[in-house]
Give the backbone structure.
Amino acid sequence: MFGKILIANRGEIALRIIRACKELGIKTVMVYSTADAESLPVMLADEAICIGPPPSLESYLNYKQILSAAEICDVDAIHPGYGFLSENAEFAEICKTCNIEFIGPASDQITAMGDKATAKKKMILAKVPVTPGSEGLVSDENEAKRISKKIGYPVIIKATAGGGGRGMRIAHNDATLIMNYHAARSEAEKAFKNGAVYIEKYVENPRHIEFQILADKYGNVVHLGERDCSIQRRHQKLIEETPSPVMKPKLRDVMGAAAIKAAKAVNYSSVGTIEFLYAGVDTFYFMEMNTRIQVEHPITEQLTGIDLVKAQILSAAGEKLPWRQKDIQFKGHCIECRINAENPYMNFAPSPGKVDLFIPPGGPGIRVDTHVYSGYKISPHYDSMIAKLICFGKDRAEAIAKCKRALDEFHISGVKTTIPLLKYIVSREDFASGVYDTGYIERIFDQFMSARKDLE
């Protein structure tokens, strides 16, 4: 087991890792930017080292500073959390050459699944269902036209190195295809320094269902069920739940088996998530793999009783999985709401600043993962998520009831948050009936704006 782990991240995930390490008897080192000097992770870690100014490129993405801190503190491993360097194959390889364990998959596994066009080819070989489209990268607009006519409009152009909805464009005809082909390439080049794209059939308003997998270094892989992440805005998730309202046991077995096949296709080890588009009537397609711990991992923890962060650390340390697939049990229902420092009434404009008062909800079945406290200053330099509200019940109706109650109790002043929108969604009849898909927010947003007086 590791004696000391450096956490190359910030916010609630850094705090989550510290807690897991403390329970495992592992010392922790926090690296931080000057903007995070007064953060809870810095206060609660055994050691803390400032690695630069607020901009991510000068701190949390600065390999040299992070590795220097690792050397000074004599750590055994680095946990990258999610975002920043968590899916950076080069950083994982550098850690290996420095004899520091990267708590995540090996660099070749990150590379194989990080490039979406390459990942798709591997899934085809592994007989995992994939969305119809180009077999690899699309070299020019003529090839883009040929493929689009073959699979039929609408199509979606995707950056092979993309993420967070960047480098993605939808086309409904030849004219918009050419325009959006170049727009996607340009955006991808700016965002990822890689303008390569591929094309797929656009599945209109599917459900976004992902499967949590856990693998050790000895070829053992299990899945821990699905999470429905369909309620999202511009490809950014707002609410996740497990189990999915549309999931049946037989479909779970089929999709879970496909997720395990996908992981085994690249000899995967660590935690990871296989993401699918569910088109209904038992039709689903591989979308991508996230080779890291996910933001929404707590709802899977609540349903299975398995601490995913601890399991990730133990896998990196070389321990075998203590579970087989038959050992994984799912009990109850769980919903996660992401609380972002954004103003939903002003086109989700970021709302950095000082949190005057922060009163999280409590009571049976309520968990809040956050690094925020009264007086905390939210920096404009980082992601706007400030808390995750996790609500667990014996069934979906109870989980929703707890979610409504907890959102009513949640009090944050000094900054604007997404709480009004979340309260509106979980109170709707269509949400209670499980009738939603990836186009849900766009369809109900005008109604939400009209209900503003009742929600604020």
Q: What stands out?
A: The domain at 4-103 is CATH 3.40.50.20 (Rossmann fold). The first helix runs from residue 11 to 24. The chain has three domains: 4-103, 132-201, 207-455.
